[in-house]
Design goal:
Blueprint: E1 2-7, H1 13-21, E2 30-36, E3 39-45, E4 59-61, E5 64-72, H2 75-84, H3 94-105, E6 115-123, E7 128-133, E8 142-146, E9 149-153, H4 157-160, H5 167-176, E10 189-191, E11 196-201, E12 206-211, H6 225-243, E13 250-253, H7 258-270, E14 276-282, H8 290-300, E15 303-309, H9 311-324, H10 334-344, E16 350-352, H11 357-360, H12 365-372, H13 374-378, H14 381-389, H15 392-395, H16 401-408, H17 412-420, H18 441-444, H19 448-474, E17 479-481, H20 487-495, H21 498-501, H22 509-515, H23 521-524, H24 535-538, H25 544-550, H26 553-558, H27 564-575, H28 582-598
Parallel strand pairs: 13-14, 13-16, 14-15, 16-17
Antiparallel strand pairs: 1-3, 1-9, 2-3, 4-5, 5-6, 6-7, 7-11, 8-9, 8-10, 11-12
């Protein structure tokens, strides 16, 4: 896990070092800058495999030079294949395997590697720079391109300079609480989409992007439930096993949920040493899962550490939030994620997580919502719209936001999209162009739950969950590995009949049945809480002055396209405990802090 930087803009070495220093938390073990044929290569190393200096980057092989961030989990298999072809290796790193593999197979190496990665390889003979990002977008990849000049980096801060903030990106953020790829907060800087490669030909100053992997049309397999359960178990065991390999201490995050407890259970079976586990708790029982996690840890016999989080802990982390999340990021669970990694770093450098299980196995509450509202959505829209306008909902005591949303939504695809985007709720003028990049979910499956899961993977997983985990872990130089984000698990889960994963309101059915072999069902069968924080109540109490100070009229009026009167009404309703508008208030608060951090007021 590292930080990369490349550019053909003629910055001097001190300028590049300064750029790397601004994200030095990504790789505290070694920093290097080299220039080859007018291209500057910068690298920050967090040493995980082969801690010897021989594995520092930039790394060279014949005419090739690489800078790389991530882990190739199946590198040993690929290395053996290359050795059989006659190649010799000087290190024990996955970096050298990736580099030599590219030498032999060129871009076809992407079909062979299983991992999380963002890398660039320069060929001095052809004067072509080849870059790629992993299939699920676990590792970040930002690039600036303008008439042949480029910069590439693991984070956007080193690329900001005096670039202009994108007003459209602000609107996207207010809709989604993140800025979806390929867009970023500034103009002319982009995210390389997951499963894509980028090639810059420096002979003619051209750039092209090609997709090498994506979700595809899927039909449920004809397979028995028991056979599917055993195949999935074997696949998860392998996904965990290959992620336990490291030359530094490894642990596991353990919440009270199904995903992390299953990953930890498997890790205790695969690991040769006792697993260290970590969890975050809260004084508020509505959000606290730490007691359940401690039960799991006792059953699994792990070395467990619980950290209780309170408002002052979060307030202290807000400067860290704006430091490492260098685009506006509105998921408040980033705060406990930061705290969890801060604690974890004292004990291990690599941690397994359960991220990705909810997307593939229907774990989020919105899947229940889709099922509950299916019959409503089957009613013709013209009738539903009339019902919503009438007083019938109030008459029957059904004046809920979710039901009204279903009644007012034209079709099921729009209802799915509303899960992830508020579609102009806070805006003066609605802007929806970003959704054009995510329309594949409509054609990959006929099942409405699978459609929602696919949009979850393509839109939310990359831009929210993966960003949250990457920045929170890198903030404290921790590498997080997620077995559920193994592309083989994603593809396998999508091939299973839906009732294997979701049946009669029972989420993650097949995962639950696998977990029963390690933890009694009566212990793990708990309501889903998610990795949330009671920020909504805190902003009415302990943090009230902080929020009012940040969300002043001067700031609100400076936000492009924001419906200020509407937001101020929401803020008042929330503070007076009439409605819960936590998500909207937090988004504007985060944006205010981002403005302060980067001087964009």
């Amino acid at each position: 896990m590292c930080g990369i930087y490349l550019s053909n803009i003629p910055f001097d070495k001190n300028e590049i070092v300064e750029k790397l220093n601004s994200i030095s938390f990504r790789g505290p073990d070694f920093k290097a800058v080299e220039n080859i044929n007018g291209i500057s290569f910068g690298h920050l190393r967090l040493s995980i495999l082969d801690l010897d200096p021989r594995s520092h980057q930039p790394m060279h092989f014949d005419n090739l030079t690489i800078v790389y961030n991530g882990e190739i989990y199946n590198y040993k298999t690929i290395k053996k294949e290359l050795q059989d072809l006659g190649y010799q290796f000087k290190t024990e790193s996955d970096t050298e395997v990736l580099l030599i593999g590219f030498k032999h197979w060129n871009k076809n190496i992407l079909d062979k590697i299983n991992g999380m990665f963002a890398f660039s390889i320069y060929d001095a003979d052809t004067n072509i720079l080849f870059s790629a990002r992993d299939r699920l977008g676990v590792k970040p990849f930002y690039y600036y391109w303008d008439d042949g000049q480029f910069e590439i980096c693991s984070q956007i801060r080193p690329l900001l300079g005096d670039k202009k903030v994108s007003n459209d990106a602000i609107s996207m953020f207010l809709d989604c609480a993140f800025i979806p790829s390929p867009y970023t907060i500034v103009e002319n800087v982009y995210k390389l989409p997951p499963g894509n490669c980028l090639e810059i030909n420096l002979n003619n100053n051209s750039l092209k992007i090609n997709e090498y992997w994506n979700l595809k049309r899927v039909e449920p397999r004809n397979i028995s439930y028991e056979a599917a359960k055993e195949e999935l178990r074997e696949l998860l065991f392998d996904a965990v096993r290959i992620r336990l390999h490291a030359d530094v201490p490894v642990g596991s995050f353990l919440s009270g949920g199904i995903d992390s407890s299953l990953i930890t259970s498997i890790a205790t079976k695969v690991s040769k040493s006792k697993i260290n586990t970590f969890s975050i708790g809260f004084d508020d029982s509505e959000y606290d899962e730490s007691k359940i996690a401690e039960q799991f840890a006792s059953i699994l016999e792990t070395n467990h550490k619980t950290t209780i989080c309170n408002p002052s802990d979060l307030l202290e982390l807000i400067p860290k939030l704006t430091e490492v999340y260098d685009e506006p990021f509105g998921d408040s669970s980033a705060l406990p994620s930061l705290l969890l990694n801060k604690v974890t770093k004292h004990y291990v450098t690599v941690a397994l997580s359960g991220d990705g299980g909810d997307e593939s196995f229907m774990g989020y509450n919105h899947f229940d919502s889709l099922v509950r509202n299916k019959r409503i959505m089957d009613i013709p829209f013209i009738i539903r719209k009339s019902i919503a306008k009438s007083g019938v909902l109030k008459l029957f005591g059904m004046n809920t936001h979710r039901i009204k949303n279903a009644l007012n939504t034209e079709n099921r695809n729009d209802f799915i999209e509303n899960i992830f985007s508020r579609k102009g709720f806070l805006l003066k003028e609605k802007k929806q162009d970003y959704m054009k990049h995510y329309q594949g979910y409509k054609t990959w499956s006929d099942n409405f739950l699978q459609k929602a899961a696919d949009l979850n993977i393509k839109l939310w997983l990359e831009n929210d969950s993966n960003v949250k985990v990457d920045r929170a872990s890198m903030a404290y130089s921790v590498e997080v590995r997620s077995p559920f984000l193994d592309y083989r698990v994603i593809e396998y889960a999508r091939s299973l009949p839906m009732h294997f994963r979701y049946e009669k309101g029972k989420q993650k059915k097949i995962l639950r049945d696998i977990l029963k072999d390690y933890i009694p069902e009566e212990i793990f069968d708990q309501p889903k809480r998610g990795f949330a924080v009671p920020i909504g109540s805190w902003m009415r109490t302990e943090l009230k002055d902080e929020f009012y100070s940040a969300l002043n009229d001067k700031f609100l009026n400076s936000v492009p396209n924001l419906n200020v009167p509407k937001f101020k009404r929401l803020l008042s309703e929330h503070m007076e405990m009439k409605e819960d508008h936590t998500a909207h208030i937090w988004k504007l608060y985060v944006l205010s802090k981002w403005y302060d951090e980067f001087g964009f007021r």
